Amino acid sequence: MSAQDEQTGRGTPFVVHVVGNVAPSGDAIALEIQRSEDGPVDLRLRTQDVKYLVSMLLSLGCEAKRRQSPGGADAPPTEAIPLPLDAINVGQSDDDQTFLLLEVGIAPLMFMLSPHCLQQLGQTLLVLSAKSSSAPS
Question: What is the CA radius of gyration of the chain?
Answer without folding.
Answer: 20
